[in-house]
Amino acid sequence: MKNFQFYNPVRILFGKGQIAALTAQIPAGAKVLITYGGGSIKQNGVYDQVKAALADFDTVEFGGIEANPHYETLLRAVELGRAEQATFLLAVGGGSVLDGTKFIAAAIPFEGAEPWDILAGKAKVASAVPFGAVLTLPATGSEMNSGAVITRVSTQEKLAFSSPLTFPKFSVLDPETCFTLPPRQIANGIADAFTHVLEQYLTYPINTPLQDRLAEAVLLTLIEEGPKVLENPTDYDAMANFMWSATNALNGTLAAGVVTDWSTHYVAHELTALHGIDHARTLAIVLPSMLRYRQAGKLEKLVQYGQRVWNITAGTDEERAEATVQATVDFFERLDIKTRLSDYDVGPDTIRQIVQRFTERGVKDLGERQDMQIADVEKILTLAL
Ligand code: NZQ
Ligand code: ZN
C-alpha cells in the first residue's frame, strides 16, 4: 500500500427531513448567500425547506448557476457575495451548484486580479468563505470532497481545482430531494459515480484488498440500486442507497493508498468544454476506448473487476478483459447512455482540436504509470469514433 494522508472534515446530515437540521450547523449571526441552479429547487419544495431552515438568518440569493457552471456567471455571484459581505454560503442543487459555490467561496477573498488563476493552476487558494450544501443530485461526490470543475465559456476551457479550504462544512443528503430527477440525470449520476470508482480501481494491483473490495461494493451497489431508481425515482430506499454510493465513490476513501488514473476524466472534460455533452456521457464515451487501448497495463485489475463484479470467468485474461469492458459498455447503454463519439455527432475535427489544445497546454505523462502521451490520447479518441 502507498503511504497516504486521509482528511475529510465534511459532516453529513443524511435522510428524510434533514434540511431542517442545517440551521444548527451555520454560525449564529451569519450572513448567508444561498446559491442554486436553474430553478428545480423552486419546483420541488427544496427551496421552501431551505428558507424555513434559514428563517433566523439574514440571507441573500444567487440563482442561475448552469450545468457545467460558467466562470462568467460565478464572477457575478462573487461580486454579490462581496457587496453583501456574505460570511457563509449555502449551495442548493447538483454538482454544478456545489462546484460553482466552491469556486465562489475561494474567489470572494481572492486578492489577485484574475480568479481564473485558481483554475489555471497559477494561484493557490489562500482562504475561502465557509459553506455548506444541500445536495439534490447523487453523482459527483462534490458534497464530500474539496474539488470543483468550472467552465470558461469565452475560451471553451473546463478546468478543475481543489483545496483543503474548499471542503463543505456540512452536506445535507435527503433522498427525497432527488425524487424529481429526470431519467437522464439519474442515468448520468449512476455512470459518473461508476466511473469515479473505476478510475481509482482499474490501474495495477499493489496489494490493497480492502480498497479493492470497497470499490467493488460501490460498483455492485450502483448496478443493483441504479436501475431501481430509474424505474421508480420515488423509491426512498433505492434512492438512499444510490445517494450514499455516489458520495462514497469520490470522498477520498477509495483513493487512499492505491494507484489512481484520472485520465478518462481529464480527456472527457474536453468533450464537455467543446460540445456541451453531459459530463457522465463524455466519460461513457472515453472510458471503454481508454480501457481497450491500455488493456495490457490494466490487465490484472480488469480481470479481477470482470470476475468479481460481472462474473466473467471464461477465456484467456485478454478475452476476459475485453468481455469486461463490453459488460461496462452494455451497462451504460442499458442506462440509455450512448458510448461513441458518432452518437453525439462528434468527429475527427474535435480530436484534432483536443490534440492541439493538449499540445499548447503541454499535457504529458498521463495515466497510472505516467506513460500516456498526447499521441495515445489521439488513438484512444479515434477508437471511440
Ligand atoms: O439547475 P437546476 O434547475 O437545479 O437543474 C439541474 C440541472 O439542469 C437538474 N437537477 C438537479 N437536481 C434536481 C434536478 N432536476 C430535478 N430535480 C432535482 N432534484 O439536473 C441538471 C444537472 O445538474 P448538475 O448539477 O449539472 O449535474 P451533476 O450533479 O451531474 O454535476 C455535473 C458537474 O459536476 C462536475 C462535472 O464536471 C459537471 O460540471 N463534476 C464535479 C466533480 C467534483 N466536484 O468532485 C467530479 C465529477 O467528476 C464532475 O467532473
Ligand atoms: Zn465525474
Structural features, described:
The mean pLDDT is 98. The protein folds into two domains: 11-177, Rossmann fold (3-Layer(aba) Sandwich), CATH 3.40.50; 181-384, Dehydroquinate synthase-like - alpha domain (Dehydroquinate synthase-like, alpha domain, Up-down Bundle), CATH 1.20.1090. α6 (183-201) runs parallel beside α10 and α11 crosses α12 (317-334). The protein contains 14 helices and eight strands. The chain has helices at 40-43, 46-53, 71-83, 95-107, 116-119, 183-201, 209-231, 236-249, 263-275, 279-293, 295-310, 317-334, 348-361, 374-383; strands at 11-14, 31-36, 58-62, 88-93, 131-135, 147-152, 157-162, 170-173. The radius of gyration is 20 Å and the shape is globular. It has a six-stranded parallel beta sheet with strand order 1-8-5-4-2-3, sandwiched between helices. Strands 6-7 form a two-stranded antiparallel ribbon. It is α/β, with parallel strands linked by helices. A hairpin with a 4-residue loop joins β6 (147-152) and β7. Zinc ion (ZN) binds next to α6.
The general outline is: globular
Largest sheet: 6 strands, parallel
Instruction: Predict the CATH topology of the largest domain.
Output: Dehydroquinate synthase-like, alpha domain
Q: Class of the largest domain in CATH?
A: Mainly Alpha
- Low-pLDDT runs: none
- Residue share in helix: 40-55%
Number of helices: 14
> What is the terminal separation in angstroms?
37 Å
CATH architecture of the largest domain: Up-down Bundle
- Secondary-structure-based class equals alpha/beta
Number of domains: 2
CATH superfamily of the largest domain: Dehydroquinate synthase-like - alpha domain
Please tell me how large the radius of gyration is.
Answer: 20 Å
Q: What is the residue-mean pLDDT, rounded to a whole number?
A: 98
Order of helices and strands: EEHHEHEHHEEEEHHHHHHHHH
Which small compounds were modeled alongside the protein? 5,6-dihydroxy-NADP, zinc ion
Share of residues in strands: 5-15%
